[in-house]
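pasting for the record
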Amino acid sequence: MEIIIVRHGTTFMNELGLGYDNFGKDEIYHLSEQGKLDAIRTGKYLATFGKYDKVFCSPRHRCLETFEHIRPSISYKSFEISKLVMESRQGILNGLDKDERDKIIAKNTKLSTLKHKFKTETNPFKKAKAHKKYIDERERYLKKTKISKIRQNYSKFLRKISRERCTRILVIGHGGTVNDIAQIVCNINYYDDILLAFGVKTN
């Protein structure tokens, strides 16, 4: 089975540098003009791989809109919206720009200390453990969806499509969808991905 995962096109929020998760029903973030052009180009590129047995898409508007621009270029048998390929919530950072996000994060001195520890740690294995402590505190403080929950959903999705009788599947999701599914397939722990920069095997 061949699985091709595509991130949604650039939105106006992306271009403005604003954090967002689009979890509210009234939060509709359209693709920018560049995002639309990129989605159209992506559709033409995806067509070069041949026909798709099935297309899975995140229910978030930016993903559905991306598919609408890809759809005319590709041939596929069926389409399904799946919540399992959604990314995490931004929590209290939702809708804020970088300066605003940095100010909120800076208020948590424990978070700053943990970030400094994992940034300055030279032992790659200790660095991975320090990274986990930082992420755990960040999720708690910012009220973000836990990484473990998101990866659990991605694992469920992979088990689901493993039962599909398909030759080629297209998935339209988020940046996190692409990164996390690739790590799960390669058996890389989220907190250990930092070791890859040092060329260390993580089994």
